[in-house]
Give the backbone structure.
Amino acid sequence: MNLKLRFSLLFSLLFSIILASVMLVVYTLFARFRIEEFKDRLEEKARTTIRLLIKVKEVDDQLLKIIDRNTINQLYNEKILIFNDKLELVYSSIDDAPVTWTKKELEKIRQEKSILRKNGEYEVYGMFYDTRVKDYYALVSAEDKYGKSKLRYLRILLTFAFVAGSLLVWFLSYYVSKKALLPLDKFRNKIITITEKNLNEKLPASTGNNEIGVLSNAFNQMLDRINTSYSRQKEFTSNASHELRTPITRIVTQLENLMQNPATPPATNEILREISAGCYQLSDIISSLLILSKMDNNPQAKGFQPVRLDEVIFYAEEQLKKLYPDFKFQFEIESTADDINIELNGDETLLRIAIGNLLKNGYLYSSDGIVQCVMKPRAGMIELQITNRGETPQVADTSLLFNTFTRGKNVQHKAGSGLGLSLVKRILDYHQAHVEYRTPEMDVNQLVVRFHL
């Protein structure tokens, strides 16, 4: 989940919780107000009825019922019961609304003076009325349809307001966070384009004191430090490689002179050959470092020329046969089209080194000295498959084969520096080509290279 979405969700969730809490409090307070208001109306009805009953002598039961029926403040499904101090029913309104009561409840009314309870859809109010002559108990039951309708309307209104408000805030918070974090998106997109090939690029400088400006300036300072360190490393590698080539060449020359001297004993010659082989391996490492340094100092593919890939392969084959007379090479061009294109734009010298390393790697780590190469020209692409028979590396090693100084466990007993395939990978990356390792079957190694035309 990205920062914009997380920020908007968090803000919107907090707003929704607060809004829901406020609306719940409003609804609860109004529900309590409705009950208190209806209780006051029931109490007033009970008091009025008792006063009419005990103070106006001329009012009999029938007249009182007529008054109840035509009163302005008549309640819905109203029922009134009046009891004397002996708990005898002295008056009952004409309405048929049910009112359940017990003597125990009347005693409770006497103790608490008034009670309010709910009986289904009805609310029952009980009151104790104390006079100097007699005491009376009143039970008034009615349904607050008007108050409940207002409460339902308020519930619907609050629900709609909550949903509409939450959706609006969720949308606005995402929009505002997206606008507020837009500089951060630009910052991220700019960072993605910066690699080891363009460390000189900088993020737009900001004079503001906001977080994005401070982060941009700090990142530019970090890029300067990385670029300085990287340049020093490349310069050291290039200079060290150049300086090491001269003494290595001298050592190899002296060793060859000693080996060609008839006075040198055979045992000494054997030792000198091993030393010479080590010097040649060291020379290969230095040459590889020089090539890598050249590509690092020229990160952009400049001066590419049309190169025939088959001629590069034949040149690499010829050079390998000079070094390894028992090297056997099988080459094939596989295509269904009559007019095939096996020419690509590249640096011929670097391509010769890459293809030569692939063929040399296939020969050195083969069990029979045979390397098969199949070229498959396709529309907009040339695929090269280099296959040999020999022990395959473990699965865990295959993802690391193209790392510098990394070798599979299947070739630990053979001479090598671990730079061959890493150098190939760098050269192919330089040409925007792709290389991968496969094992088509048991004890078969295959390297597949794809050049995009």
About this structure: The radius of gyration is 49 Å. Residues 301-452 form a domain with the Heat Shock Protein 90 fold (CATH 3.30.565.10). Residues 119 and 279 are 105 Å apart (CA to CA). The longest strand covers residues 122-130.
